[in-house]
């Protein structure tokens, strides 16, 4: 009887976990479907200039994101299950209140620095209203992100699904009104995002904030914990987002738009690919930690073989698909998308190699790798963009992520005693053959 009860408890727990997993996955699927459905509508009403300016300020956002969240999300989740409910509430309120104040200062200083940069460099896009809309969206998005984490950590799958779906749908619906009905172009699209983040941010703050329980000792501990993660986040900028900052200097609105649309289309493929990767990620960790090389390799071949076939399939139909999705206006973006999908494929491969590093407890090497890659990335982007412009940027992405994989493989080999001994033994045998005059045998 006791065994039956235990089995029933385990079954019920698994059913709950499966339901929550589906709830957590559903918003990503919804975002993909809605984006694919609405992209043709937006593409009819948005000009080359609109796609260019949105892509440019998306990169600007990535500069501010690490210092506007300070890795507080990770800090909050780190010891979530070790703290009581009351302690979690106090930590959450302290983190939110601190970010509420500091982010106002960061946005003010940021706008001042950007205004100087735009004037000195003579950026082809105006600073206002785009910078204000972008940074304002980031300010209120933080509250929505905290509420999403709260739902996820407490395994409130249905609430998480509903809120994340609303976060995805609301900017699109409001954006459609401003872009299609009022014809506001990029301003309307970004205004839709800003208004939706404002509404959801205010709602999230009201749900999460109970009473003033600010504790600076929590902030101090969070900052000490988070500063290496902030540095790592900044190191992603030269390898992922700096390309659009550099491409703006080419003063070619038409190709800049096609490049940004190519990134967007490749992003749809990456969204699908990363969902597949994340589904198998626990198995990667499991087999790597168990040193079950055979099962690990089988799993890798299955996942990356499937992702490779997706890329091949997309490359074949991309021109037709993008022509349909953009009403024939931006068909040329397929050339960039076909290159960027392979960059994203290599990015997922680097995630796999990072799993091995984490299991081997070599996380410090990961940070060293990031530092090396940020230098390589910035250098490659500058050289390739100056030489080959927009196609140079697309090829640079492939080279950068290939370099990342190479660096991680070298770290894995360098930190593996088994591989080092194997190489050493083969090298000794080679030297012995030379000494014995049997090198040709």
What does this structure look like?
The longest helix has 52 residues, at 363-414. This protein folds into two domains: 12-235, no CATH class; 254-441, no CATH class. α1 (2-45) packs antiparallel against α11 (253-289). It is mostly helical. The chain has helices spanning 2-45, 48-69, 72-78, 85-121, 130-153, 157-181, 185-208, 216-235, 237-240, 242-247, 253-289, 293-325, 334-359, 363-414, 417-435.
Give a short overview.
The protein is mainly α and 441 residues long. The protein folds into two domains: 12-235, no CATH class; 254-441, no CATH class.
Question: Secondary-structure map with pairings?
Answer:
Elements: H1 2-45, H2 48-69, H3 72-78, H4 85-121, H5 130-153, H6 157-181, H7 185-208, H8 216-235, H9 237-240, H10 242-247, H11 253-289, H12 293-325, H13 334-359, H14 363-414, H15 417-435
